[in-house]
């Protein structure tokens, strides 16, 4: 075999030529990492999309939920509460579609880290609120808080984002359709 290679670049006789029928650029086979990427994209994107859609029709409740954290000035927190559902819907849609995956995942991950810090802050200060992640938020009785669960969930979502920042390629993405030979932004 003397180091001969197939037209697809694989060593001759290995049966690993991944060129599409009729020639062209080699296809990348979908290994476990790319399927994990698809799952991470759908979990983080779907969660952000659902959270935003559940809040978008209730702007006053979204504003009150952000204000309940008592971190930002009252009016600023209200504006954040109004803008957050739009940001969540945009990032969620980009991730589900697999478009600008690395950038959307980075922003989604950073958003989760902000949520973790905000929830840890109210927990440490003894403020009892519902996080408002999926709709109504605001003050609740101390026995109704679920801070540990919410932080654990957000850590998992942040890890999905980190995976996608490091490995943005996944099956069924618009990034791969629009630019099959380069890693998405």
UniProtKB/TrEMBL annotation:
Domain Methylamine utilisation protein MauE span(s) in chain numbering: 34-166
Entry-linked InterPro entries: Methylamine_util_MauE
GO biological process: methylamine metabolic process
Coiled-coil annotated spans: none
Compositionally biased spans, kind Low complexity: 1-20
GO terms under cellular component: membrane
Main location: membrane
Alphabetically ordered keywords of this record: Membrane, Transmembrane, Transmembrane helix
Domain of life: Bacteria
Membrane topology: Multi-pass membrane protein
Membrane-spanning parts: 35-56, 76-97, 104-127, 147-166
Subcellular location(s) of the protein: Membrane
Segments of this protein annotated with the region Disordered: 1-28
Protein name: Methylamine utilisation protein MauE domain-containing protein
